[in-house]
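Morning run. Coffee first, then this:
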Amino acid sequence: MKIQPHKIGLLLGALTGGMHFCWSLLVLLGWAQPLINFIFWAHMIQPIYVIKRFDPVAALTLIIVTTGIGYLIGVTGGALWSRIQRPGGPAQ
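And here it is:
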């Protein structure tokens, strides 16, 4: 099966960036701390982390960096996958 590394990069970048966008939105709405508290409670862990106030610069930085890292991992993984699957690739 042939895949396009750029498309895999876009998909993984959108996924990682989108997840961190959602986290930033939870912080902005004030819902992040109750969510973290619930997750820790359900896992029987005493919460020690405190969610800080929303910082738009930090949120934008988080989203941009995680999107870029997700894209690079997707492109790299897609290129490696294509190379491994290619007839006459490194396995032969």
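The mean pLDDT is 93. Good start to the day.
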